[in-house]
Amino acid sequence: MRSTFIKWLFIVYLLGSGTLYSMGILVFFPFVGRSGRYWLAAQWCRAMVVVMRWLPGITYSVEGLEHLPEGPSIILCRHESTWETLAFLAVFPRRISFVFKEDLLRIPFFGWVLRGLDMVSLNRGSPRQAHLAVTQECAERLAKGDVVVIFPEGTRVPHGAPLRLTSGGIRLACATGAPVVPVVHNAGKVWPAKGWPDGVGHIRVVVGPALSPRDTSQQELSRTVHDWMKAELLRL
Where would I find the Phospholipid/glycerol acyltransferase domain in this sequence (predicted)? Predict the structure, then answer.
């Protein structure tokens, strides 16, 4: 009974605070620049990380953060839950730009904030046009010094599911010369791909070594990323 109450209290807080905070920071968006908008959004994410620790009892740790390059890079990360989309702005010290589905922009308040954060939206209607548009947008964010976060499996998957990576992130790295940083975590064990967290849990995030596309072929780079992610997932 108590765990159910805490879960629903967390859900109400997440949705309620997200809506109220979005309404509040939208007021400031016209008066602050790109960096200021990101900072405002990141404060809510940092607050959520604290609330997750006290309500459902979700903690996290990060290993290998020193591997993240100083300049722009491309993070290829498994998408297991809602947790990483909420926490990554707090977890990573660099400005990140998610590649996300365009449908999210239609959500009142949240979508409007997301549009103002100048990230990369993906229209899944036409695969070829979508790929070209996303490649161009990602290249623009990399040129601004962002860390672009791509979920190469395209959707949320349960922890323990077979690893199936699409080639978009690797092709982007080869086209732009930006290093690839593979990242894995076990958030799906704590916060399922479909659903809400049910109780206490610890999430481990492992950041892999930066891999330059200039030193290898596209096929070799893809294989290296796949093998590293698969091996590390088995350890989580």
Answer: 73-188
pLDDT class of 101 with cuts at 50, 70, 90: confident
Strand partners, 180: 74, 211
**Residue 25 β-bridge partners:** none
Beta-bridged to residue 203, according to DSSP, are 60
Residue 189 makes CB contacts below 8 A (sequence gap 6+) with: 159, 201, 203, 236
pLDDT tens, residue by residue, 119-167? 888 775 555 666 677 788 888 999 999 999 999 988 899 998 999 988 8
Task: Single out the residue of 162, 4, 167 nearest to residue 76, CA to CA.
Answer: 167
pLDDT digits (tens, 9 = 90+) for 167-191: 888 999 998 999 999 999 999 999 9
Measured CA to CA, the distance from residue 131 to residue 85 in angstroms comes to 22
Q: Parallel, antiparallel, or unpaired for β 180-185 and 201-207?
A: antiparallel
Helices H / strands E in the chain, number of each: 8, 7
Domains of the chain: 2-235 (3.40.1130)
Q: What sign does the CA torsion over 31, 34, 39, 44 have?
A: positive
Residues with Cβ < 8 Å from 2, sequence gap 6 or more?
A: none
| Residue 26 CB partners (closer than 8 Å, separation 6+) | 109, 112, 113, 116
Matching residue, tokens 């978009």? 168
